[in-house]
Structures are given as C-alpha cells and as structure tokens.
Amino acid sequence: MNDTFSARGSILIAGVTTIDGSTADIAIDETGTIVAIGDDARGAIDADIIIDGSERLAIPGLVNTHTHAAMSLLRGYADDMLLQDWLSQKIWPLEAHLSGDDVYAGTRLACLEMIRSGTVAFNDMYFFMDRAAAAVDEMGLKATLAYGFIDLGMEDKRETEIRATEALVRRIASLNNPRIRAAVGPHSVYTVSLAGLSWCAGFAKEQNIGIHVHLSETGKEVTDCLAQYGKRPAHLLDDCGCLTTRTVAAHCCWLDESECRLLGQRGVHASHNPASNMKLAVNRAMPCHWLKQYGAGLTLGTDGCSSNNNLDLFEEMKFAALLQKFAWNSPTLLPAGEVFTMATAGGARALGTGPGTLAVGAPADIALLDTRAVCNTPLFHADSNIVYACNGGAVRTVLCQGRILMHEREVPGEEEIIREAAAAAHALVERAGDEG
Ligand SMILES: N[C@@H](CCSC[C@H]1O[C@@H](n2cnc3c(=O)[nH]cnc32)[C@H](O)[C@@H]1O)C(=O)O
Ligand SMILES: [Zn+2]
C-alpha cells in the first residue's frame, strides 16, 4: 500500500466503467497526464501500477470553487444564526485568535475531507495562506489560494492587506508547485473600499492571476450597496475592474438580470453555494438560468465548514439541483447532467486546472466510485446516481495529476491529521475564552 502512495510512475486503471456506461482502460503517464482511454490504452504505457477498475465508475475529480478551508476547525462552533450576527458575533471574534498553525491544521483536515469525497481542486480564501499552501503541497490536491482582503474603508488597513496579498503571491511563486496558484481575494463590496477593489483588480492583471470575491450573497448587501454607491454590487465590481474571465464570484444569489448579463459579457465564473445559502437563509437562489443564458461560467462551491457544515461536493450537487427547482419553481431546471458539469468541467475551467473531463491529454484528476454501493444500485444513468443518490462516501480511490491520494478509502496519515485538527480547534476556542 505504501508503494501505491509514494510511487510516481505510470498507472493503468484497468476495465473501469465510464459515465456513459462503457468499459475502458485508462492509461496515465509519469507526468500525470491521461495518454490513452479505451481498448488500446493497455499498450500505450508500460504501467508501474495497475488499479483494478472492475466494479468502479471513473469520473473527473470534483472542483470546489468556494472554500475557506481552515474553517473546518469551526465546524459546528456557531450554527442557526443570521449571517451578519454569525460573522460579527461569533466567527470574526474567534478568527482574531487564529494562528498560522491553526490554518495549517484546519487546511489539512479540509484537504482530507475533500479527498475522501472525490474533490481534487479547490478555490480558497482565508488568512495565513502560506500555511494553507504548505498543507495543500503535502496533501497533493490542486488549489488556488487567495488572501482574504478586507480594508473596511481604512487606509492603514488597506496598506496591510496590500502587503499581505503581495507577500502571498510572492510566496506561492517561490513554491514552484504547478498544483498551487495564487489569486487576489477582495472579500466583498461591503468589506472592501473602491480603492481596495481597484487595487485588487490592477494587481491581479499585473500578476496575470485570478480574482476570488463574494458577490451578492444577501439582499442587505444589494440595498446597502445601492444606498452607498447608487449601483448594484456586480456593476460596482465592474467599475473597479474586478470582473474578468479569471474571476470567481461566490454566491451570486441576489443578482438581477442585468448583472447576470454583465457577468456573461465579462466571462466571470459564478460559484453556486446552495447549502451555505440555505443554512444562512439568504432567501434567494443564484439565478442559474439567467447566468447560463448570458454565458457566464457555472460552478459549485461549499463555502466554509461553519456554514455548510462539510465539504462534500456530492451533497452540494444534490442541494444545487433541488434548490434551483424549488426556488425558481420548475422541476426541469438544473438537471443532473448540468449540475455534474458544474462540479467538474465548470470548476476546472474556472480554476484553469484542465478540461475537467476524462480525455486524452487531460490531467489524471480522477475519482473512482463503487458501482456496487447501495446508492449506485441500480445504475441506469450514472449522472443521476451521482447527483441524487450518492454522497462522497461512494468514492473509493482518488488521483490528482496522476498521484494516488486515496486508495480503497485509505489516505496516508489521516489519523494524525484528525487528531491535530481536533486539538487545534479546542485550543483555539479556549484561547478565545468562549466555549461556543
Ligand atoms: N484579511 C481578512 C481575512 C478575511 S478571510 C475571509 C473571511 O470570509 C469570512 N466568511 C466565511 N464565510 C462567509 C460568508 O458566507 N460570507 C461572508 N464572509 C464569509 C471568513 O470568516 C473570513 O473572515 C481580515 O483581516 O479579516
Ligand atoms: Zn465564503
């Protein structure tokens, strides 16, 4: 087993079921690229490792486009509250006591949870991101990491956030790990000044990196923005240059049709976070149908573990499909195939990690599901089982860029990761002098 995880050779996944129901071999070379799929794949490489694909369904690894990974330490710390109260009374006071070690422990726990539920890449915004990068580096996933930029209209705070953003981008460049990228993370229109937003846009352009922002999460965000600036949040972000083809906008719940058109024109990727939105009762579902109509990117995210409270994108796919139907009153909206595409190709395109499909030339970012699991029985339409019946527990094996991160539900070192995260979470709450 240790050989399986440490090896860096070529891999053959033999006789695996694909999403269309056929059986194929998948050949992966030493660089972690899929070099052949089908009957002829076996001959394409001299495989160092052979993974038995019988009773396994191969899907592209899932991509989570909105997380605060280290908030895994805050899972269950404060639930059932109003968004503003939850942030200002519980989360932000606790976060004031966070250390870099906490972010490292929490991000490792989050990576473990994502691997165990078939996710290979994520888009994160938080503090101490150099420590998050170290965790991702070790755990073997792909991530785009942004320092959450919040200036609250104060010039001295803006300077601090600018320095922190610049330092993270330098740090990630120095890691020289192609799996880890930096982005600029202006938190939102209600926490960042116009000068801050404009600086973020300019810096992202200069560095040729993405932007990760919260957009139109609540009705209050929209009414406050209209009162303060006389325009809606997406138009304000656009004035500051924050809407680009490399922007991921999380939530997008309260966008009107003109804002959806604008996101489409700018080629922005919207991250739908249905579990967080329902839990915090933001009271409107992202208008997927308008965003799709106007050509914006559609992707899926979980948000942090204290508003979800897990990172399982299988559950998120189901919530997305159900919420769209319920909120917009049509059972034909967001069918299984479309939500599966959001969680795979849509997310991969947004983060630039590949096509998000199993194809020759694509990176071997692959999850293998158990076809004999109850949730996959019977298996008439794989996308339906995946979206409506399964959760992450159906995932048996995960590869990221051809590296085996989990095999038959074993992830190396997981007991230590869990123990250290639990200890860090309890010590944090104790330091903050509040038992939650
Ligand atoms: N430099 C910032 C750090 C911001 S990290 C990103 C922030 O987003 C917060 N956050 C998490 N979930 C949500 C959400 O749903 N809406 C808005 N903010 C959130 C999270 O708790 C964290 O404080 C500072 O000095 O405060
Ligand atoms: Zn968030």
From TrEMBL:
Keywords: Hydrolase, Metal-binding, Zinc. Zn(2+) binds at H66, H68, H214, D303. GO terms for molecular function: 5'-deoxyadenosine deaminase activity; 5'-methylthioadenosine deaminase activity; adenosine deaminase activity; metal ion binding; S-adenosylhomocysteine deaminase activity. The keyword Iron does not apply. Its EC number is 3.5.4.41, 3.5.4.31, 3.5.4.4, 3.5.4.28. The keyword Cell division does not apply. Pathway: Amino-acid biosynthesis; S-adenosyl-L-methionine biosynthesis. CDD domains: ATZ_TRZ_like. It catalyses: adenosine + H2O + H(+) = inosine + NH4(+); S-methyl-5'-thioadenosine + H2O + H(+) = S-methyl-5'-thioinosine + NH4(+); S-adenosyl-L-homocysteine + H2O + H(+) = S-inosyl-L-homocysteine + NH4(+); 5'-deoxyadenosine + H2O + H(+) = 5'-deoxyinosine + NH4(+). It holds the Pfam family Amidohydro_1. Substrate binds at E95, H187, E217, D303. Its cofactor is Zn(2+). One of its GO terms (biological process) is S-adenosylmethionine biosynthetic process. Residues 58-404 form the Amidohydrolase-related domain. HAMAP family: MTA_SAH_deamin. Belongs to the metallo-dependent hydrolases superfamily. MTA/SAH deaminase family. Catalyzes the deamination of three SAM-derived enzymatic products, namely 5'-deoxyadenosine, S-adenosyl-L-homocysteine, and 5'-methylthioadenosine, to produce the inosine analogs. Can also deaminate adenosine. The preferred substrate for this enzyme is 5'-deoxyadenosine, but all these substrates are efficiently deaminated. Likely functions in a S-adenosyl-L-methionine (SAM) recycling pathway from S-adenosyl-L-homocysteine (SAH) produced from SAM-dependent methylation reactions. This is 5'-deoxyadenosine deaminase. It comes from Methanoculleus receptaculi.
